[in-house]
Amino acid sequence: MSPERDTPSPQTTPKASAINGAPIPSFSLSSSDLADEDNDVVAPSFPATNSAQRASVAPTLSPRNPSIQKPLLQPAAAQLMPPPPRLAPNPRVGQGTAASLRVPTTGPLPNRGPPSSSNGSTLGVPSSGVVKPTNGRERAKVNLGPGYSPLDWATLLKSGKNLSGVTGFQRVTPSQLKAMNGRKGRPAWSSYQGKVYNISPYLPYHPGGEGELRRAAGKDGAKLFMEVHPWVNWENMMGECLVGILVSEESGGGASLEDMD
Ligand code: HEM
């Protein structure tokens, strides 16, 4: 408490007082001061009339604010409440809502996938548009020669040509299947779910490469096939290459198989 402070009247609202002898501004809260004021009071030049600082100060700072004309019977809290919204112009408002919706220029954009990919696709997906499971294996990229596209294979399937390499339905024993491994001029056969197919004509059409397909030659190819691409329909793609059915060794093979040896 400063000894220089004016002694306030116990009946009046406590007045602000100078702490270091500085004069108190004329905007006193006392009713007598208000009565002496008229509306010609010039607002202080600072803060500016429409500034944010002024907006945050009690309304009694603005003589043009009608609230100061009211008697001090209002609760003190009401006197200290900020004026009705008279905010300084928001510089963003003039730029439209697009400004507030604009995506920051730093950091990854949403829904854009990984920032970059080895195939150069900006969307981070393979350029083929097909996302395939890899089964933990690195798939070989095979360039099929001209005329050996999947469409070409489909055309060949419908051509009516004999793609099985045999004249009739065969009963194939495991040993006979093993002999048809594609070597020494022999055809490549492979079994799938008990059926035997001649995979030789498909070798140059196989998207995974001839070498991969040859791994199934002379044996049951189902396991290898399902490991790599279980979504591929073997029976549809190889239907015209059907040689016959796999039978037990004791059952014996067909006569035509013996002719091929
Ligand atoms: C007659 C049986 C087979 C047929 C009809 C066949 C068919 C196909 C087809 C249609 C594709 C393309 C798949 C795609 O793009 O989604 C493909 C790819 C492939 N196949 Fe086969 N396939 C056969 C057997 C095999 C076997 C036995 C192997 C492995 C030993 C194999 C290995 C592959 C590989 C590595 C690819 C490449 C996959 C990729 O590019 O992501 N295929 N095959």
From TrEMBL:
GO cellular component: cytoplasm
InterPro entries associated with the record: Cyt_B5-like_heme/steroid-bd (IPR001199), Cyt_B5-like_heme/steroid_sf (IPR036400), Cyt_B5_heme-BS (IPR018506), Cytochrome_b5/Flavoprotein_Rdt (IPR051872)
MF GO annotations: cytochrome-b5 reductase activity, acting on NAD(P)H; heme binding; metal ion binding
Record field: compositional bias (Low complexity): 71-80, 108-121
Keyword field: Heme, Iron, Metal-binding
Pfam families named in the record: Cyt-b5
Chain coiled-coil ranges: none
Domain of life of the native organism: Eukaryota
Chain intervals for the UniProt region annotation (Disordered): 1-143
Domain Cytochrome b5 heme-binding, residue spans: 169-247
Family membership: Belongs to the cytochrome b5 family.
Annotated protein name in UniProt: Cytochrome b5 heme-binding domain-containing protein
Record organism: Coniosporium apollinis (strain CBS 100218)
Classification of source organism: Eukaryota, Fungi, Dikarya, Ascomycota, Pezizomycotina
